Amino acid sequence: MGIARALALDPEVILFDEPTSSLDPERVAEVLSVIKSLAHRDITMIISTHEISFARQVANQILFMADGQIIERGQAKAVLDDASHERTRRFLQQLTPSPVIS
Fold first, then answer.
1. What is the pTM of this model?
2. Domain residues of the chain, as ranges?
3. Yes or no: is domain 2-93 CATH 3.20.20.140?
4. What percent of the chain has pLDDT over 90?
């Protein structure tokens, strides 16, 4: 697994670019569970994801990008629950919930 290889190098930061894309639902839950456990170990991660429910559970900061620009940045709860930018609000309204990972 790519996550294990990355951890073996003892990095300061781990980058994830859509880590659940093209995975079957069982694997999505497995990968999100591993990433969530890393978050609880205070490992710094930068994650590009459309799994917004998951991001809500593990993120400290959220950056919302559109057309190659950061249009909103802030604490996860503030951005996801009370977005200030209209583009962010439209995007969030169109999403279906992701599975909750315990």
1. 0.76
2. 2-93
3. no
4. 42
